[in-house]
Amino acid sequence: MKKYVALLRGINVGGNTILPMSELRSICEDIGFQNVRTYIQSGNILFESEHSEEKLVKELEEALYQEKERNIPVIMRAAADLDSVIAHNPFPDANPSQVGVTFYSDPVPKGTLEEITTPGREEVKINGRELYVHYPDGIGRSKLKLPKQAQGGTMRNINTINKLAALSKEK
Length: 171
What we know:
29% helix
């Protein structure tokens, strides 16, 4: 069995698409995910499966649609990939709560950096399927604008990614 982490986009934020983690765990178990755990209320799921990432994303998105009657995008990584995401953090000396990593299903589109509007002091770097942003003045104060083609991901800060990586190593 392979360990995975699924990251749901846009749940439990601003009162839209409320999904209790107990309900999310139940949905995942019902579609055959094994050893399902969630972390915080923002849609982070750790589980095991023998299936491929693509198949698991499709199954979970379909199950979420059936349950909530709305599309909830799912980004998935093998749990072992989180170590690489952490290792490639281009802002290792920054406060981890001020570094956001946006996860995408596919590689970040070429030309994304040239189209980003950063009116503040944010710094942006790309590595494969992740876009890293350092928010030195805090994420909540940022006026950073991503181009339309780069808005389909879901962001977690480095603290959350570190915790998910650690949880994925527990037995």
